[in-house]
Amino acid sequence: MSTEVATPESIEWVDATRVDATSVGIVSTQFATLFEPPHEMTLVTGAKLGPVRVAYETYGELSRERDNAIFVCHALTGDAHVAGRHAPTSRKPGWWDELVGPGKGLDTNRYFVICANVLGGCQGTTGPNCIDPKTGKPFGSQFPFLTVGDFVQVHSALVRHLGIEKLLAVIGGSLGGMQVLDWAAQFPGQIRAAVCLASAARLTAQGIAFNCVGRRAIRTDPNFHSGDYYDQPVGPDHGLGLARMVAHITYLSEASIEKKFGRRLQHGDHFAYELLHETEFQIESYLHHQGSRFVERFDANSYLYLTRAMDYFDLEKSYGTLERALGRTEARFLITSYTTDWLFPTIQSRELVDALVAARRHVSFVELTSPFGHDSFLLEVEPLQELLQPFLEQTYMEARRHCGEGI
Amino acid sequence: MSTEVATPESIEWVDATRVDATSVGIVSTQFATLFEPPHEMTLVTGAKLGPVRVAYETYGELSRERDNAIFVCHALTGDAHVAGRHAPTSRKPGWWDELVGPGKGLDTNRYFVICANVLGGCQGTTGPNCIDPKTGKPFGSQFPFLTVGDFVQVHSALVRHLGIEKLLAVIGGSLGGMQVLDWAAQFPGQIRAAVCLASAARLTAQGIAFNCVGRRAIRTDPNFHSGDYYDQPVGPDHGLGLARMVAHITYLSEASIEKKFGRRLQHGDHFAYELLHETEFQIESYLHHQGSRFVERFDANSYLYLTRAMDYFDLEKSYGTLERALGRTEARFLITSYTTDWLFPTIQSRELVDALVAARRHVSFVELTSPFGHDSFLLEVEPLQELLQPFLEQTYMEARRHCGEGI
Predict the structure, then answer these.
(1) A197 - beta bridge partners?
(2) Selected catalytic residue, list B341, B370, B375, B376
(3) Mean pLDDT, range A335-355, rounded to an integer
(4) Which residue from A228, B101, B240, B246 has the fewest beta carbons nearer than 10 Å?
(5) Structure pTM?
């Protein structure tokens, strides 16, 4: 496992090297084995899968009443390592270290925070790069088809496995936000609050188009071997790198790329006039770097499975209407979108808000001004913190009041 | 040469199959050989190149005064075949047939319209897929580095070769618009008017980023052979197809993709739950189709050379300021941008207008409302026609008046 270098989306932009008094400190990934035969999970497709190993981390302490747990759903290429460091020498902290810790937005002095790597991922949870116990070989192309509903089924089971009946909140951005929405619809009684950032009830056609290009880059890489490349000396690195490069552009805003890189050259001020000079502009060098780094930490099959789950996610298709899907839960919602996010534009968050209002659910919505495009949900921590703290506080107080009344 | 199926950008959206009374009829591509040794052209890099064969077409008649010629600069993947058909059985007319013909925006009853395939292209003009007379083999990787200035140098020479001292107008969109701007700066006395559509004085960093991904797809295709693949059984088709797919997304608007394809499936209403089903959504099928079609008609090396020329184009870098670059000509300008074009956003056209105003040049600017994104310049012919007709008419009248005064 190499969660140490795990970096969701383009978090490299953040200087996340500092360790301060608000860090959760040194943490380690834990593992749970769920759905052991004959109790395999039934996937949305009807296929059976088990056992399922889940890699997860926790921060803070579970209260005696077991009522302070918050589950973080990671985005496409994230992992369970949200906060702190795996070792004092770790180069980088967890991917949302700015939000999770003592006194932070997800305050580990008050809350018990959980995050798990998704099913089909490649950071410790059962996925295509794991050994299939039936064959003794990596699943590869034989790994079953997955949906966002399946990710959530595993996370929900993990929460019960940890002895927690009801989560105070579930929170996530992008594909993580899709999991939050699915959770509200699939396990409506398991959550008191849902926080959905830079996400939507479905991916746009443009989003599917970019995923489609990325997947084709992987599949047409001659080292892909139809997904069974684990015994080969080289995997489909070029294809996976390309997939990351094109996706990465969609995580940034045009304005932020322009500001950060513009047309500046990597070396000096003069053109090389050399066709084979691939990284002459700084933006090219940056993208190539993103592609190379990604290949070191991510598995091409996981990329195929997870992006396809993202394409498929469609609450309306699954439940008839958004109102019916989201009205199943009594949870309070906090929804944010970001002005420059063109992958999950604000109009999609408004659709969620409209459905929740129609279903007479409690919903707070804020469109945050940010230059960072889709990645804003990872980068604009301070305004998010300001929204989250009172939202969680109120949810917590109400939960405790209700419990008190029950006594 | 297969100009018959040549299709700039996503013009497939247009039903261009009809032949009407306003067609220029059956046309054929002509060829001129310029810059024959020892009179080779000097490229912007300083390298020499010659002879240069130029594929071009003309429509309408050159006036006795030779004052009614309009040069059309094609975009990245276009060619010389703008209007009419090569044979009565041709499946499709030229790529801008709706604009060029008797009574149309570029009225061939009045004007003599010329279009030539760009240097480095693959539709008849000297490019990397042509035989290098020095070696008797295709240029391939030995083709010299090109810039937009070099394209224009060849076009300018072709115009003189045709016995035309001064063009009534030069017109183009996207990379064609860059050629228009370069023409105004490089050969300021050769044009009376410049029409620049959906273009800019430089590509954005985001645009460079998308080009960078496309080029990498070609270069990492194992059939690329460092550009010398012409004697191989297969070229870098996967890479070139991928490059086209990603570029194609940038030619469309999010709203137009959503409207045309949305999340509709290619077959029926039910998900296949099959990871290897690459074209389950209609948008995927469409993009794959675009990639395949493109590979049939375009050369991977040309794609590398022309996209790099597009990245490099930077009037400000070449001339110090935009005002200085564009102020060199007395030509009148017509500039259009399109509301949903995110590859060449309106703000870039406004920069051109500001520079022209500062240089005290005549400029008309319109931001046209269109849902079709960057491709609008090809698809929204009617509003363009309404702008062009009086603009060209006035330019023509003024030219004739000045000539009359000169007599």
Answers:
(1) A173, A336
(2) B341
(3) 98
(4) A228
(5) 0.94
**Banded pLDDT at A405 (limits 50, 70, 90):** low
Rounded to an integer, what distance in angstroms lies between the CA atom of residue B63 and that of residue B60? 9
| Rounded CA separation A102/A328 (Å) | 33
- The span from the CA of B11 to the CA of B95, in Å, is 7
Phi-psi region of A251 (alpha: psi -120 to 50; beta: other; left: phi over 0): alpha
**Mean pLDDT for the stretch of residues B295-322:** 98
Task: Tell me if B231 is assigned to some domain.
Answer: no
Cβ atoms of A161 and A32 closer than 8 Å: yes
* Total structural domains within chain A: 1
CB contact under 8 A, A342 and B263: no
ipTM of predicted assembly, 2 dp: 0.93
Per-residue b or e along B11-41, where b marks 16 or more CB atoms closer than 10 Å to that residue's CB: bebbebeeeeebbbeebebeebebbeeeeeb
Distance from CA of A283 to the nearest CA of B (A): 6
HEC sequence for A165-185: CCECEEEEECHHHHHHHHHHH
User: What percentage of chain A exceeds 70 in pLDDT?
Assistant: 94
Residue B402 has pLDDT above 70, yes or no: yes
Q: What is the 3-state secondary structure (H, E, C) of B148-170?
A: HHHHHHHHHHHHHHCCCCCECEE
Residue at B169 is within a domain = yes
Which pLDDT score, from 0 to 100, does residue A325 have?
Answer: 98
Residue A159's φ and ψ, nearest 5 degrees, are -60, -45
Please give the structure tokens belonging to residue A197. 């950032």
CA distance A144 to B123: 46
Of A23, A174, A256, A337, the active-site residue reads A174
Number of H helices, E strands in chain B: 12, 14
Range of the domain at A174: 3-203+316-406
Can you list the positions of beta strands (E) in A100-241?
100-101, 106-107, 112-116, 131-132, 137-138, 169-173, 193-197
Task: Output the six-digit token pair for A160.
Answer: 């019960």
The C-alpha atoms of residue B214 and residue B206 are separated, in whole angstroms, by: 13
Strands annotated E in A62-176: 69-73, 100-101, 106-107, 112-116, 131-132, 137-138, 169-173
Return the pLDDT at B9.
Answer: 45
The reply to whether A290 falls in a domain is no
Secondary structure class of B391 (helix, strand, coil): helix
CATH number for position B336: 3.40.50.1820
- Return d(Cα A374, Cα B83) in angstroms, integer: 42
Residue A302 lies in a domain: no
Q: Report the pLDDT value the prediction gives residue A12, as an integer from 0 to 100.
A: 41
Residue A288 designated active-site: no
In Å, how far are A199, B20, B195, B336 from B349, measured between CA atoms?
33, 34, 12, 7
Q: Rounded CA gap, A226 and A239, in Å?
A: 13
Q: Answer whether residue B319 shows pLDDT above 90.
A: yes
Tell me how far apart the alpha carbons of residues A195 and B217 are, in angstroms, rounded to a whole number.
38
Task: Compute CA B347 distance to the chain's CA centroid, rounded to the nearest angstrom.
Answer: 21
Range A219-225 contact pairs with CB under 8 angstroms and sequence separation of 24 or more: A219/A304, A219/B278, A220/B221, A220/B238, A220/B242, A221/A300, A221/B220, A222/B222, A224/A300
For helices A300-312 and A175-186, angle between their N-to-C axes, nearest 10 degrees: 50
- Residue indicated by tokens 């080029």: B215
Strands B363-368 and B332-338: parallel
Which residue in the list A81, A221, A374, A375 is annotated as catalytic? A374
Q: How confident is the model at residue A16 (pLDDT cuts 50, 70, 90)?
A: very low
Contact A249 B213 (CB under 8 A): yes
Q: What residue in B sits closest to A342 (Cα-Cα)?
A: B254
Residue A107: pLDDT over 80 = yes
In a mutagenesis test of the B interface, which of A202, A212, A224 is the best target, namely the one with the most B β-carbons within 10 Å?
Answer: A212
Cis, peptide link before residue B51, omega less than 30° from 0? yes
Q: Which two tokens stand for residue B380?
A: 């929204």
